[in-house]
């Protein structure tokens, strides 16, 4: 009987442990991801080969259950984030994922533009409107627009960028309305929304959405960037370097394994990213020789400073290099022995 009771208790505990793994806490856990070679991901038609490699670095991010929460508490370079720090208020997992993927698409377009301009090659755009990235609760767009909706006209007029859209709406006054032509699942519909103050202390009015340009870039030779389910804008710098390296005959890698991170603006500015410490760890594990880090013009607490501290902490021989612009990264690589 005692043996039967012991077996029953063991089974009950096993079921409880299994069930608890599916109970998510109001936190996310982030940890070092991978350093992935870009040459198999990016293909420029007729592009030149390279002896070394450029690598993007990632962070693994997921909802915390009891076990991942405890593991993060006990582990170096794992971090616990409150839900509201990662996702906007009332944002679903699907909306968060969509927002990350759209930011990745924008990052790819900027990287292509910067690389082809540097190589002296022509660029053309097809502009399709703007994507809704986020809807702010209790603002006029709440319940009317969804993440992923494409806005193609405002008050019956086309526009050429999200900046132009924001400027147009910003000139209107409290209580006025805007009519948006929205494309959702290939159907167009007009939605009229009133303008509302964002908060009581601000005179700024709007409908309560954040946007990203929906545009296609046309270049010759053609380039294909396959990112699958990788989201976010932080691979922009490494995308631009890999694309440019395939466009030119000189190999910028010089046989080195070069990892890094940083957003890429269309003017070539490299921007700050989150969680750079985890990316340094990922790059070191992958055997990178060099890590390019956003310098933020030498600001206190910059990504570069955090990367240097992490490199020292994990005792890596990987060289950490501060980068502010795409041009600066190319100049550094051209001087490698």
TrEMBL record:
A matching Pfam family: PDZ_2
EC class: hydrolase
Annotated EC: 3.4.21.53
Keywords: Hydrolase, Protease, Serine protease
One GO term (biological process): proteolysis
Location of the Lon proteolytic domain: 229-336
MF GO annotations: ATP binding; ATP-dependent peptidase activity; serine-type endopeptidase activity
SUPFAM superfamilies, alphabetized: PDZ domain-like (SSF50156), Ribosomal protein S5 domain 2-like (SSF54211)
Domain of life: Bacteria
Active-site annotation: 234, 279
Record bears the keyword Protease: yes
Catalytic activity reported: Hydrolysis of proteins in presence of ATP
Residues in PDZ domain copies: 108-186
PROSITE patterns named among the record's database cross-references: LON_PROTEOLYTIC, PDZ
Family: Belongs to the peptidase S16 family.
Protein name: endopeptidase La
């Amino acid at each position: 009987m005692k043996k039967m009771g012991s077996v029953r208790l063991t089974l009950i505990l096993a079921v409880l442990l299994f069930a608890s793994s599916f109970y998510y806490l109001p936190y996310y856990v982030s940890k070092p991801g991978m350093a992935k070679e870009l040459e198999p991901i990016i293909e420029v038609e007729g592009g030149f080969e390279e002896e070394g490699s450029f690598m993007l670095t990632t962070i693994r991010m997921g909802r915390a259950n009891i076990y991942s929460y405890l593991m993060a508490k006990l582990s170096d370079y794992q971090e616990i984030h409150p839900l509201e720090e990662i996702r906007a208020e009332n944002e679903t997992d699907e909306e968060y994922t969509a927002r990350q993927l759209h930011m990745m698409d924008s990052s790819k377009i900027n990287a292509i533009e910067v690389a082809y301009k540097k190589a002296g090659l022509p660029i053309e755009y097809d502009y399709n409107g703007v994507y809704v990235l986020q809807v702010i609760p209790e603002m006029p767009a709440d319940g009317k627009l969804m993440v992923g909706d494409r806005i193609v006209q405002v008050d019956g007029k086309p526009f050429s960028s999200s900046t132009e859209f924001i400027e147009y709406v910003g000139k209107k006054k409290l209580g006025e309305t805007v009519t948006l032509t929205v494309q959702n699942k290939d159907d167009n519909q007009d939605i009229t929304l009133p303008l509302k103050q964002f908060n009581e202390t601000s005179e700024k009015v709007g409908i309560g959405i954040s946007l990203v340009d929906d545009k296609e870039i046309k270049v010759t030779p053609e380039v294909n960037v396959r990112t699958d389910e990788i989201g976010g804008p932080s691979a922009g710098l490494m995308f631009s370097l890999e694309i440019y390296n395939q466009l030119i005959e000189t190999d910028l890698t010089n046989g080195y394994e070069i990892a890094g991170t940083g957003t890429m603006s269309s003017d070539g500015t490299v921007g700050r990213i989150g969680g750079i410490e985890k990316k340094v760890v990922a790059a070191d594990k992958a055997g990178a020789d060099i890590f390019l880090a956003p310098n933020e013009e030498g600001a206190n607490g910059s990504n570069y400073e955090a990367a240097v501290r992490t490199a020292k902490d994990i005792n890596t021989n990987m060289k950490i290099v501060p980068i502010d612009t795409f041009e600066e990264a190319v100049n550094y690589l051209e001087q490698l022995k």
